[in-house]
Amino acid sequence: MLKALYVSALCVAACAVSAEPVTFAIDPGHTVVTFEALHLGTSTQRGRLVAKEGSVVLDRAAKTGKADITLDMNSISTASTGLTGFLRGERAFNVAANPTARLVVDSMTFDGDKVASIAGTLTLNGKSQPMTLRAKRFNCYENAQLKREVCGGDFEGTLLRSQYGLGFLAQVTPDEIPLLVQVEGVRQQ
């Protein structure tokens, strides 16, 4: 009996060490980017973009990960229909020519078992720049409805507007645009 328990314990330990990376498919209903832009020093304009598709690969044992998330630029919205139309137009994001934006994450840092930050490249408006986002929170749980694990969190960072061809807006809004990325992914079988 004692020998069987010992063999079982060794098997569990070996399985934990040899854990494989796990792929999560992005849930577009729970993956949104919100941004803020100070308008002429008076009020804050807020907007959002919705994810179109993507995946996250986590190897929790190795404390590594990567992600590839595509955002639908046609989903950009603000409280102002005029501002939304302007942002979609040729003078800003030119959504007709650039219908998607893409965040490719090459590395993740962990604090214990939780993702603490992600780093990679954001391609927006036809321009690619490095992007680092810090985790405000990160969690995984067993979704009772889906009967699968879901992982996600809120990540924050700053976009420099001028690096994405929007330098002409310097008289209207600061260069630093705060971002909050809400992301959830469903574990794939």
From TrEMBL:
All copies of domain Lipid/polyisoprenoid-binding YceI-like, residue ranges: 23-186
Cell division keyword on record: no
InterPro entries cross-referenced by the UniProt entry: Lipid/polyisoprenoid-bd_YceI (IPR007372), TTHA0802/YceI-like_sf (IPR036761)
Signal peptide annotation: 1-19
Keyword line: Signal
Cross-referenced Pfam families: YceI
Taxonomic superkingdom: Bacteria
SUPFAM superfamilies in alphabetical order: YceI-like
PANTHER family: PERIPLASMIC PROTEIN (PTHR34406:SF2), PROTEIN YCEI (PTHR34406)
Protein name: YceI family protein
Organism: Piscinibacter koreensis
